[in-house]
Design brief:
Strand content: 15-25%
Largest sheet: 9 strands, mixed
Structural class: alpha/beta
Radius of gyration: 16 Å
Strand order of the largest sheet: 7-1-2-6-3-5-4-8-9
Shape: globular
């Protein structure tokens, strides 16, 4: 698979925005997302405000590698690594007992949805940022998710602190990830296939 060159200035601007507690609009391995530092409650709050999202709804976070799971989940079932390894399409896994994340990104039951990404820009950004990044669809709550950059509402574009240049011209339509809930015993169920 051919790797597309990542513009250093674009990457650095996204990185600086995240470090400053700002919001970015960025491409992921699924659809375009609104992102922020998943350990910063004030930054997470800005996403709820921008999307008009119910605070009871949790958001997912992205990691660059499965080695980081233990930093954010109390107990990672061994099967999680096998599921991540075996999947050929984006997979979000909901884990029990999240830790070291902003309290307002964690669901009321203490769970967190995490996806280990396979996307050139996201992986590089996560590697450089060294913290998880929130990823929520780039839309106002209740409206349809944008399948590519050109479908994103101007209100969202204007509401973030930085819009990533990488991937803006891709016309392919992204699709949401598969979601599965995994309990500490290793038992899992599909939430969305």
């Amino acid at each position: 698979m051919q790797r597309v060159a990542i513009d250093r200035a674009d990457l650095n601007a996204a990185l600086e925005t995240l470090k400053a507690g700002g919001l970015i609009l960025y491409p992921t391995d699924t659809i375009w997302g609104i992102g922020c530092d998943a350990t910063n409650p004030e930054a997470v709050e800005k996403i709820f405000q921008l999307k008009g999202r119910d605070k009871g709804k949790s958001m997912i976070v992205l990691l660059g590698t499965d080695n980081q799971l233990q930093s954010y989940v109390q107990e990672v079932p061994e099967v999680a690594y096998e599921l991540i390894e075996a999947t050929d399409k984006p997979l979000t896994i909901i884990y029990s007992n999240a830790k070291n994340l902003a309290p307002n990104v964690i669901a009321e039951d203490g769970s967190i949805g995490i996806r280990v990404v396979n996307h050139p820009f996201c992986e590089t950004l996560l590697q450089r940022f060294r913290k998880p990044i929130v990823s929520t669809s780039a839309n106002i709550s209740g409206q349809a998710s944008a399948a590519n950059f050109h479908e994103i509402a101007q209100e969202i574009i204007d509401g973030v602190d930085y819009v990533v240049q990488f991937g803006q011209h891709e016309a392919t339509k992204g699709t949401a990830s598969t979601i599965m809930k995994l309990d500490p015993s290793g038992k899992f169920e599909f939430i969305r296939k």
